[in-house]
Amino acid sequence: MPYVSAWPSRRLLVVAAALVAFALALLTGASAASADTSACPIPSASQVFSQFGDNAYYSLVPGGNFEGDMSGWTLNGASVVSDNEPWNVGAAGDSQALSISAGGSAISPAFCVNDLFPTWRFFARVAGGFPRWSWLAVSVQWTDQNGNQGVTRVATLGGDFFRTWRPTPTLPLGPALDDSTTMTERLVFSAGDGAGWQIDDVYIDPYAKR
Fold it and tell me: How many structural domains compose the chain?
């Protein structure tokens, strides 16, 4: 199977165990982003995944192409490397990706999300090691308007399917929230011990336009 997706309850956001808890601990030393209780701004978007049969409009997560300023990202055993997903959905001149070593993690900058932001996706591949035994845990670290925090696991990508660059399936973002809830969220990528991973071009769908 290419991935295992654990959909969270709409009334209870489940805090993931073990590895995801470790990734959340990385945020302890960083200032937590305040939740935006107003309506989230709708960023400009384009159909970057249309060649894969996905006609939704997507907007790049801050720094999500790994081509420029990475100051908003929290990296542990991860770094920018010379590589790029082969479809160049962002720009033809893109030449960098994020490499996450086995046991390492990366956490995106914070951004505003509500239930009008239904999905997100990115590109990934295993980088060395033992792909069959490797995996990448993909989670959302959230802060609600009352200051409550947690982490929700949304998928586990299996290395055997990602031996070469592939777009991920669409992953839940807004549907993980209660109706009409606005939150600040960060995306968390945690590599298992079997192998390192590379990710590139991380996009969110701001309004499910079809």
Answer: 1
Q: How confident is the model over 191-207, as pLDDT tens digits?
A: 998 899 999 999 999 87
- Tokens linked to 185: 């969220």
Is residue 120 within 8 Å of residue 205, measured between CB atoms?
Answer: yes
- The two structure tokens encoding residue 69: 């300023």
Q: 137: domain range?
A: 3-26+44-88+102-204
DSSP strands (E only) in the chain: 3-4, 59-60, 74-82, 96-107, 111-113, 119-127, 135-144, 149-158, 166-167, 171-172, 183-191, 196-204
Write b or e for each residue in 45-80: b if 16 or more Cβ atoms lie within 10 A of its Cβ, otherwise e.
Answer: beebbeeeebebbbbbbbbbbbbeebeebbbbebeb
pTM listed for this prediction = 0.81
Strand 135-144 with 149-158, pairing: antiparallel
> How far apart, in whole angstroms, are the C-alpha atoms of residue 102 and residue 91?
29
Distance of CA 150 to the CA centre of its chain: 15
